[in-house]
Amino acid sequence: MLKLYWSPRSRSFTTLWLLEETEQPYERVLTDISTGAQKSPEFLAVNPMGKVPALKDGDVAIAESAAICAYVADRYSDAKLAPALDDAKRGKYLQWLFFAPSCIEPAILQAYTKLEIPPMSAAWGSTAQVFDVLEQALDKGPWLLGDTFSAADIAIGSGMNFAIRLFKMVPSRPALDRYLDACAARPAFQRAEKIAAG
Ligand SMILES: N[C@@H](CCC(=O)N[C@@H](CS)C(=O)NCC(=O)O)C(=O)O
């Protein structure tokens, strides 16, 4: 059975939501980061970074939320969380899935820390640029791929929910509000919220 190593109030939420969307049975292994459990030798054998979330699927150990999204969406394809390899939407799906860790995550941290980096040097450009592009992409909606919900929405929706609604690190915008409402209306999101609250 799948094993998800997770901690409350953390980036684990992305993977809780993901696994709830698949409706696959999975075991949750509480790895409470407030106790230092993420630095135990047992957990470091799963993720040498000592960070949650991490997933074990049999002997396969995977860390990094976006990689877990990509793996699970392809491996458990009945959940229809990823366009098929020959689907025209596959390219944009991958673009948005990678946008989560490469652009959204640093943009949020830049907004929060007020760190100044020249946009030409920053891989994500600037915070404003990242959120402008995301807002434009969600103009039609409801999802990043239009009518098709995907694991990219889980990676990005979870990150934006964390930054805007949970920790108020960045201000919202109308398109992002509509998007986060649509995410929060999903039964799997709501189940994940209950689990994450402990
Ligand atoms: N790049 C990782 C980041 C994971 C991460 O930052 N996890 C934090 C919790 S939100 C953590 O485990 N912190 C504990 C520590 O660093 O000791 C991902 O996206 O999964």
Quick tags:
198 residues; alpha+beta; Glutaredoxin; Glutathione S-transferase Yfyf (Class Pi), Chain A, domain 2; four-stranded mixed beta sheet; 8 helices; binds glutathione
Structural account:
The chain is an alpha+beta fold and 198 residues long. The chain folds into 2 domains: 2-80, Glutaredoxin (3-Layer(aba) Sandwich), CATH 3.40.30; 90-190, Glutathione S-transferase Yfyf (Class Pi), Chain A, domain 2, CATH 1.20.1050.10. Helix content is 51%, strand content 9%. It contains 8 helices and 4 strands. It has helices at 12-22, 41-46, 65-75, 90-113, 127-137, 151-166, 174-184, 187-196; strands spanning 2-6, 26-30, 54-57, 60-63. The chain has a 4-stranded mixed beta sheet with strand order 2-1-3-4, covered by helices on one side. Strand 3 (54-57) and strand 4 (60-63) form a beta hairpin. The longest helix has 24 residues, at 90-113. It is globular and about 40 Å long. The model has no long low-confidence stretch (mean pLDDT 97).
Q: What class would the helix/strand composition place it in? A: alpha+beta
What is the share of helical residues? 40-55%
Low-confidence stretches: none
Total number of helices: 8
Major beta-sheet overview: 4 strands, mixed
What is the average per-residue confidence, as pLDDT, rounded to a whole number? 97
Q: What shape does the CA trace take? A: globular
Report how far the terminal alpha carbons are from each other.
22 Å
Strand order of the largest sheet: 2-1-3-4
Strand content bin: 5-15%
DSSP, total strands: 4
